[in-house]
Structures are given as structure tokens and as C-alpha cells.
Design goal:
alpha+beta, five-stranded mixed sheet, 10 helices, 12 strands
Length: 325
């Protein structure tokens, strides 16, 4: 098993964000919005200036030693690598499009609509959903269905802590997460590449699992727009498309959500999307992956992305092919 229970002494100091005084969420997001504009300007003049961005956003949370990796096996990707290479089709299909164009998205103010089978529906400011006094840093592996992977230090809270506030009813078997729909700022939504808005979902026991994380920051800084600001989820044992970005709606339902990629290409994508080296995508093998910044399939893919001991009990007795489809 790769996931290890460690103390901060086991991780090089260069790979841990320092503890610092917490800021209010509103001040945090104001600084972040300014930082995002600066990030876009830096990109326009030849690349991301991560140190300057770090100075503009002096925000950090303590590392939770229960949720980290062995740095000898899983070296952290740099802030620049994480923020300049990812999928966010709302801003275009090229991996660098989110970095180039996501500064157009306004993240202050931001509210989340909550509806469906819960006792506390309504419209929530982010700070009403996320307890910013309880933020923690977790180092997780991230595996894209396309075959590339990274290791990144997210800042946030367990999804369970958010959903518990909303009091899901007993009939709620699934939870949906909807991404912002704003074509004026997210020009990719003017295309038919996907059905908009982007929708993802989890079974309730998946969403309540201790590994499931609600993210508001990255590398001790405000979460950049291109990585899903101001609120996203990360489900580390699943392929990356399951981790919805820039969330504006949470809906509790008795029926399985029709997640965007399964609607778009049902012959290639399903609901579960659990990482498995033995079940290939119809167009490529999943046996190995490319750990960026390498360009080679330089490491074996791990069952459940290396988190099998923690999550495989969620799927006991279920069909293997369906689970990893």
C-alpha cells in the first residue's frame, strides 16, 4: 500500500506548506481573485510565476499526517505543473487553456444551491458550507483517465463535513455536483464538446468516505481558477473526471446521476470510474501511467490509484467490469 500514516517529520520540509494564521474566507478569496489575474498576466508574458503568486496568497493549513504519501515513491508535482496542465473543458480542450483563460471567471461572490432529498436546502455562501477554521492539507495522487498522473497538496475539508450540514434524508442514495454554467466567462461552454453544465455524482457512502475531499486551496494558497476555484471535490481513488470543479449546485437524489461523460460517450465512460490497471479504456491501456512531467508511461497503475485498502470494501460483490468502466 502506498498511502502511509506519517508525521510531518517524515516529509521533506520543502514539500510541506507551513502552518500560518487563518484568514477569513472573504479576504482569502479577494486576495485569490487578484492573484488569479496576476497569474494570467504572468502566463501572457511567458509563464506562471509561482513564487510571486505564493507571496500574493500567504495562506496555508496544517498537513493531516493520515492523508499523505511516501515522498520517496510519490514526489510532489510543482505548483506550476499542477496549475498549467489540466482538463477544464469549460475553458477549452487544450491542457493549457484553463491557465490562459480561467481568470475570466468571477469567483467572488460565490453561492451554492442545495436541493433534493435533504433537510437543509437553500442557497449557501461558501463559508457557510466549509468551516475555514478546520482546513487541512492532504497530499493525494491524481490519476486522469487519459493515462497521466500527478501528486498534489490540496487544502480543504472532508466532503462529509459539508454534507452533514445539509442533512441528507434516508432516501438520498446519491449526491450530484454541478459546475458553473456561465458561457460569457467560460467560452468552452459555447461549444458542443460536452453537455453543459458539467455534472458529476457519487453514491452517498462514497461521498461520506474519509478520503473524499472538498477542496478550496492548493499548495497553501487559494485554489486557482483553472483548478476549479473556489470550490471543487477530489476523489483520489477515481479517475480525475469524477472530481467536479467550480461547484454551484449540490443535489441529493434517490437515483444514480447522469454524469456528463457517461452521457456524452456512454460506450467509453460510466458512473463509477474507479482506477484499475486491469480494465482498459476502449481506446488505450490503463496498465501504466505517465507521472508528469515525464513524457513516458513510466510507472504501473495501482488498483484504486493506490487506495485499495481504504475503499475496496465500498464495492464488495459488485461487478468488476462495471465498476471500472
Amino acid at each position: 500500500m502506498i498511502l502511509k500514516i506519517k508525521t510531518s517529520a517524515d516529509v521533506p520540509s520543502s514539500e510541506i506548506t507551513p502552518e500560518s494564521v487563518y484568514h477569513s474566507r472573504r479576504d482569502f478569496m479577494k486576495v485569490g481573485a487578484a492573484g488569479a489575474a496576476g497569474l494570467a498576466a504572468a502566463a501572457a508574458f511567458g509563464g506562471v510565476n509561482a513564487p510571486l503568486f505564493a507571496q500574493a496568497n500567504p495562506y496555508a493549513a496544517p498537513l493531516n499526517p493520515k492523508f499523505t504519501v511516501d515522498p520517496a515513491v510519490d514526489k510532489l508535482n510543482t505548483y506550476e505543473q499542477i496549475t498549467s496542465f489540466n482538463n477544464f473543458y469549460e475553458f477549452g480542450t487544450d491542457k493549457s487553456d484553463p491557465m490562459r483563460y480561467a481568470s475570466r471567471m468571477k469567483v467572488v461572490p460565490w453561492t451554492v444551491d442545495v436541493d433534493g432529498l435533504c433537510n437543509k436546502p437553500g442557497k449557501y455562501d461558501v463559508e457557510k458550507l466549509v468551516d475555514f477554521k478546520q482546513l487541512e492539507e492532504r497530499v493525494y495522487r491524481h490519476r486522469c483517465v487519459e493515462g497521466w498522473s500527478m501528486v498534489m497538496p490540496w487544502v480543504g475539508v472532508p466532503i462529509k463535513s459539508v454534507l452533514d450540514k445539509l442533512q441528507p434524508q434516508a432516501k438520498a442514495k446519491y449526491v450530484e455536483f454541478h459546475t458553473l454554467l456561465r458561457p460569457g466567462e467560460m467560452f468552452g461552454q459555447k461549444t458542443g464538446v460536452l453537455q453543459w453544465p458539467y455534472v458529476e455524482g457519487l453514491r452517498m457512502d462514497e461521498a461520506m468516505h474519509p478520503l473524499a475531499f472538498m477542496v478550496v486551496g492548493l499548495y497553501g494558497k487559494v485554489l486557482p481558477n483553472q483548478n476549479g476555484a473556489p470550490l471543487r471535490i477530489h476523489i483520489p481513488w477515481k479517475y480525475g473526471f469524477k472530481s467536479g470543479k467550480s461547484i454551484v449546485r449540490i443535489r441529493f437524489t434517490e437515483t444514480m446521476p447522469r454524469n456528463t461523460w457517461a452521457v456524452q460517450t456512454p460506450s467509453e465512460y460510466g458512473f463509477w470510474a474507479n482506477v484499475n490497471p486491469e480494465v482498459d479504456h476502449p481506446r488505450w491501456s490503463q496498465a501504466r501511467e505517465t507521472r508528469l512531467p515525464s513524457l513516458l508511461r513510466n510507472r504501473p497503475t495501482l488498483l484504486f490509484n493506490g487506495y485499495a485498502d481504504q475503499v475496496q470494501s465500498l464495492y464488495a460483490g459488485m461487478d468488476k467490469k462495471v465498476l471500472f468502466y
